[in-house]
Structure formats: C-alpha cells, structure tokens
Amino acid sequence: MSALTLSSSSAATLRADAVVVGVATSGSAGKAGKKASLVLAPGAEAVDKAYDGKLAATLETLGASGGEGEVTKLPAPAAGVKAPVVVAVGLGEATDRKEPVEPEVLRRAAGAAARALAGTKKAAFALPVQDPEAVAAVAEGALLGAYSFTSYKGKDSSAKKDAKSAPLAEIALVGAKARDKAHKAAAERAVVVAEEVHRARDLINTPANGLDPKGFAAEVRAAAKEYGLTIEVLDEKALTKGGYGGILGVGNGSTQPPRLVRVGWSHPKAKKSLALIGKGITYDSGGISLKPAGHNETMKCDMSGAAAVFSTVVAAARMGLRANVTGWLALAENMPSGSATRPGDVLTMYSGKTVEVLNTDAEGRLVMADALARAGEEQPDALVDVATLTGAMMVALGARTFGIMANDDAFRTAVHEAAGEAGEDAWPMPMPAHLRKGIDSPVADIANVGDRMGGGLLAGVFLKEFVPEDIPWAHLDIAGPAFNEAAPFGYTPKGGTGSAVRTLVRLVERTADGDLG
Hints:
Mn(2+) 2 binds at residues 279, 284, 302, 363. It is an enzyme of class 3 (hydrolase). It is found in: Cytoplasm. Its EC number is 3.4.11.1, 3.4.11.10. The protein is an alpha/beta fold. It is built from 15 helices and 20 strands. The chain has an 8-stranded mixed sheet with strand order 8-9-11-10-14-18-15-16, with helices on both faces. Strand 12 (346-348) and strand 13 form a beta hairpin. The longest helix is centred in the middle third of the chain and has 25 residues, at 181-205. The radius of gyration is 24 Å and the shape is elongated. The model has no long low-confidence stretch (mean pLDDT 95).
C-alpha cells in the first residue's frame, strides 16, 4: 500500500511529483442572475500565490467546474512550486469557506486525485485538514484510491505499462502535523483501515480457482498467527458431527468442501462483545438452480461479507480496540453436481430447524443461518451479519447503498449511524411481520424462499428465525456496493470494494465505548 506521511512544509516548497489542491463551486448558474465560479479550498493558498492569485481563473479557462470528484491537471508555474504538476480536485458546491468540508466529500476527492495520479511516485495533498477528522478523511480517501489488483498479471506484461498504472507510491498530507497526537492518531487509524479494506478487496478480486473455502481458511489462519487472534476451523467432518446442515447442504455439490471459521480478538479490559457473521460463498453458480448466462462471471465476489468480517477482526486487533470481537466465516462453494442439494430437499440446520430448499440459488441464507445460530450460543452483546444476499436489495437501493435490517430499532439506528460516520452509504429497511407467512413450508419448519416481491426483506425475515430473541441483531445486505462493475469513482475501484469494513470497524469502536444503541 502507499506510504503516508504528515508534512508541515508548504505545498509549494515540498518536493513531490504533483501537488493536489481542492476547488469548489461558489454560487449557482442562473440563480439570482449570478454565474457560478470557482473558489479555492483552504490549503491551496501557497500554490495560488505562485500563479499570482489566478489559479481559480486558470482552472475555469481549462473548463473546470469544481464538481465533486472532478480532476483537472495543469503544469505548475515556472517558479514558486517545486512539483511539476498541480492537480485540482472538485469538492462540489461551497457554502462557507470557514465551515469544515464534509469528511466524505474530502474522502472521495482525495480518492479521485489518488486514482488520477497512478504511476506517480509522490504527491502532496494540500486539501483542507483543519481538524483530526479531516486528516483522517483525506488520508483514508487517498490510500483507498491508490489501489490496484495485479496478482494475476502475467510476467510478460509490459513493465512500462505497469509503471504507468501502478498506484501512487507516497502520499504527503500537507497541513497535518506529525507532532500533533490527534493528527498522528487519525493518520495511523486511516492506514490500518485502508490496509484492511485492501485485504478484503484482494480476497474478493481473487478468482474462485485461487480461493476456495480451504484456502480462505488458510488466509485467516496466517493472519491469526500474525496478529495474535484465536482461530477455530471446522472442516467437513466437524461440520457433519456438529449438525451444520445449512453449510453442508450448500457445499455438498462442490469438490471443494466447506468450512466454518471462528476468528476472535479479545481485549483484557473489554466490557462488551460483538459477533460478526460473514457470508463466504467463494463461488456461486446457483447450484442446481443454475444462474442464467451472464450472471456467473462476477460470482467470485459472493464471499464479500466474509472478507469484510475477517478484515474487521484484524483491524480491531491492530488498533487494540477494547472490545471482544468474534468473526464467523461461513465458507462454501455452491456448485451443481450429482451430490448437490436439489430443489425440494429438506435440510436440518444447526439450530434444529428444518428448511425446505425451494431454490438452491438462495444459498447464502442457509450458511448464514447455521453461523448465526452458532454465534448466538456465545451470548454476545450484539450480532451483525454481512452478506451479498439478494439481488432484490440492489433493485431497491441501487449499486452503491447497502440495506440494514434488525430485530431492534435502536440497534439498527446505531449501525446506520456507524455507517454514516464511516462514510458508507446505507439505509434502514423494515422486516414486516406479515412476510413471515410467505416462507411457510408444508413439509418443513420453514422454506428458504417465498414471494418474489420484497425478496430482500424476506431474506432478513428468514435469518431472524435463527437469531436468539434476547440478542440485538442487524443484517447488512451488501449485494449492491460489494462489487463495482462500473467505472471507478472517488476512492472506489472497479471490482471488489471492501464494502462494510469501515462500518464494522466503526461499530467495534462504538462497542468499545459501550455505545451499541
């Protein structure tokens, strides 16, 4: 990952290959007869001076609008700025220059600038960093934007091409004070969070032939050894002995057997505990209910929930958070074969409930149900599951927002607040009681699918059946934002995004503070 330094030097005098400044739109075209114009954000003063105070006017001439995430590059003046290139990144509409810029606006702007500087060795970021929150946002955004996945690039790839596309190597935060404890702590946290988001992204982007359940478990085992985590891996024999019918039912069709991994961080002064459960379908063909052509190519990402949970537990350990955090990774490959579960089969779950499987492509809820029931036995203060669970949630909320359901309104609010504090788009969703009748089964306790309408909500209703009633629980359906098939934007790359890692880390911090809603 890119190196991060805090610098008290002037943006104009710092030795770098590029200097990044922020610009915003002041006023609105056609509003009260005024024309929208560009204004420079705090931090750009020294660079503007080198342009004789005409940097904003020059950018306007080049067509810059100041819109969020817009990147404009221009040569630095012959004298006054040591970096040869100035990069202006849009912050959107300016309200009051004295008011701090919203952290997520800074995060996205820094990410857009970092992406635009691929192939660059060092860039000075002279964006507004008036307080530790702003330092964290700029650092996090730049680090998240400087990402690429090259593990499977061939050895004969052009070195020149690779150099031009390599992530920005070094990020210097101008105006952030290395000797300020709050600034330093904000930067250190940003490094850990970004590295763990990158860990999740790497896992998600790894093709299924490079990451099966056993391989995923090995990755967790290696990290557990490195960071002092506890780990327990249940293989197919242990799953059979333990009665994990959901995980086994999904994994039966594959030659790669399933796993249930428990990985934990505990702090000696912790007063609260949080259990996180992640869906880890390393490849989802749909099973016997095979997905149609065109819907299979990205199904390596169906383990994004497990990747998020794993990365969060590691982050908690690296940050030394005063909370006991347990991650449960329900790992399986969903494949069609002679041994695969068939539509109409009945599975006996870990909880003892029986489930009629009407659609083998609704497999995530089956592995999650077993993991939820097992995690609940340890009586944590709260349970949170994370899953790329339903296409219906994407229909409801689009590709950039995940849904939050819960059995406790206060806890759902706490999770939603954590997402907002972390800068991730999320929305609280209901679980109407009347939907429960839709998954009644004539032959088993419950069916794994029901009415098509409200399918995302119905999946939450199904999972609720396996959660102890006395434990606050939230379900995060990250099907939309987990994998970006469109063009990169802000700090979000194409491919695996690491969705929910930042929300979960923030939730662990709130757990450490005793603030679970």
